[in-house]
Design goal:
With 103 residues, the chain is mainly alpha-helical. The protein has four helices and four strands. Helix content is 55%, strand content 12%.
């Protein structure tokens, strides 16, 4: 159980990091962050010109995708659940957290 949970957490973290790294490029020499025109236009069309009327319609801009991956990671890591359009979690330790502390 703990091994499967850990594997899921690692996979979700890798998914989040890949999505975040696709949002920009970073020049180490100049310490400069660059965001592509595609990212800006996708975000503009999704957030400033939403043509969708339903809340259940999936957004496909890279920022929304990164956000959904982050929420998925958060739900798995902290045992969060969706209830009435809001995250609801518990500060109680999960079974996995208790097992990790015991090790």
């Amino acid at each position: 159980m703990l091994i499967a949970w850990d594997d899921d957490i690692i996979k979700l973290r890798d998914k989040v990091m890949a999505a975040l790294n696709n949002l920009f490029t970073y020049n180490l020499v100049e310490h400069k962050v660059t965001i592509t025109k595609h990212i800006v236009e996708s975000a503009r069309d999704c957030h400033l010109r939403p043509e969708r009327t339903s809340k259940n319609t999936k957004r496909n801009c890279p920022i929304c995708m990164a956000d959904s991956y982050l929420e998925e990671y958060e739900r798995k890591l902290f045992k969060m659940e969706w209830k009435y359009d809001a995250n609801k979690g518990s500060w109680r330790q999960s079974t996995e957290e208790s097992a990790l502390k015991g090790i």
